[in-house]
Predict the structure.
Amino acid sequence: MEKYIANEKRYADTDFLQRCGESGILLPKVSLGLWQNFGDAADFEENRALLHYAFDQGITHFDLANNYGPPPGCAEERFGRIISSSLAPYRDELFVSTKAGYEMWAGPYGNWGSRKSLMASLDQSLRRMQLDYVDLFYTHRYDPLTPLDETLQALVDIVRSGKALYVGISRWPLEATLYGIEYLRQRDVRCLCYQGRLNMLDQEVVESGILEAVRREGLGFVSFSPLAQGLLTDKYLHGIPEVSRMQRDASLRKSLLTPELIAQLTSLNQQAQKEGKTLAQMALRWVLDHEGVTSVIVGARNKAQLADSLGCAKG
Ligand SMILES: NC(=O)c1ccc[n+]([C@@H]2O[C@H](COP(=O)([O-])OP(=O)(O)OC[C@H]3O[C@@H](n4cnc5c(N)ncnc54)[C@H](OP(=O)(O)O)[C@@H]3O)[C@@H](O)[C@H]2O)c1
């Protein structure tokens, strides 16, 4: 493998960075998530090329979770192989996040939000990614059965241990989120950001008041699935392509693609064309235009998709 040397101009576009809430951290407006395209069915060299391309474009933030793959753990393991080979010299330029909260291993401790589960999961993630620390560790979902204080104290202790520099909350309801932010604040731990789904087809975080509330609290907001898993691109306008997430009929169900939705997407696509944008670019810009949104975490199968998406934030 040829030695990777990052593009010297990767930070030339200073408008591409945005402050994450009231913190010291700047994040790229477009971040890359490794949920579905870094599993063992994906080509490893293409994964490596995609990460290099992303970093060359100024994408410093990579979003993972313990269970990303498939199989669970595969994305972190691949990311670790790439980091430890070609990206190691750039570790201090990278902002790596991971999460725990969904089922990861068998038995009562491989799921949800207990101290035992979060601590063990982060240790496993660090081993898979061959890292000493992550920049950001999230509680991946709200656990109605574990006392909130137990989950939150685990986050405090994780920061104190140096295994994560910041912590974040993903998919918690509003009231629990506000409680969590305050719990952490009283222990001098910054809750850096909230990760939630916001896209042109799903505005629940706006309607529930979460986006506004976390902005008021000084957190950043990073949006996952900003393209509604690919629906907000031109790929489903004429049916379900052979190579597509919907073809797997798992996280993106075929039954979603009703004639009404296709009509809605077609009309959005026409609007994008009038604006001289692709539908993906218009959809990402729409998310970024919300006050309080720091970054959109896109998933990309390949460089062409990521290049298209980057057009929402780069001239
Ligand atoms: N906190 C949470 O609970 C949570 C939940 C979900 C996701 N996330 C995070 O958010 C990240 C992004 O989620 P996502 O993958 O659902 O994001 P997304 O950007 O909404 O969807 C990504 C998919 O859209 C398609 N696509 C992307 N760009 C395209 C383009 N320019 N033209 C045509 N198709 C395009 C690709 O589908 P094909 O593969 O079909 O080509 C790609 O895999 C994840 O990787 C993860 O880091 C977090």
